[in-house]
Amino acid sequence: MSKTVPFETTALVRDTCLCLHAQRAARALARLFDERLRPVELTHGQFSMLMSLNRPEPASMGSVAGLLAMDRTTLTAALKVLERRGLVQVSVDPKDRRGRRLELTVEGRARLAAAVPIWRETHGAVEAGLDGLDADALRASLRALG
């Protein structure tokens, strides 16, 4: 098992790997949104989590995990942080005591409302900086991968 991979293969992966390019773009966007959301004490992930809970009725763990493409263990860990901060309430599902229902608290709704204008401004700037790329086509392509 002492085979080596030629540098040309490294360059090929560097230049063409969809996973690598998606990860790099995701990290760059995450850093930008984290920085911009700092005044409201949220990360981009927490913003997405709160937004996913902004519903007329409490959400199930499964529906939120599916929307955010997270496994339940990761979702549970992220929710605990928001619950400790008083932004999310986790309660027993009255229809199935094994399940949990998730909802925003009053403070969670207020924090989300404070974050939305920041998200709008940042998101608009990102889209404006796409240099001729069609943002809708990009979103459709990303959804096709997920």
TrEMBL record:
<dbReference type="InterPro" id="IPR000835">
    <property type="entry name" value="HTH_MarR-typ"/>
</dbReference>
<dbReference type="InterPro" id="IPR036388">
    <property type="entry name" value="WH-like_DNA-bd_sf"/>
</dbReference>
<protein>
    <submittedName>
        <fullName>Transcriptional regulator SlyA</fullName>
    </submittedName>
</protein>
<feature type="domain" description="HTH marR-type">
    <location>
        <begin position="15"/>
        <end position="146"/>
    </location>
</feature>
<dbReference type="InterPro" id="IPR039422">
    <property type="entry name" value="MarR/SlyA-like"/>
</dbReference>
<dbReference type="InterPro" id="IPR036390">
    <property type="entry name" value="WH_DNA-bd_sf"/>
</dbReference>
<dbReference type="Pfam" id="PF01047">
    <property type="entry name" value="MarR"/>
</dbReference>
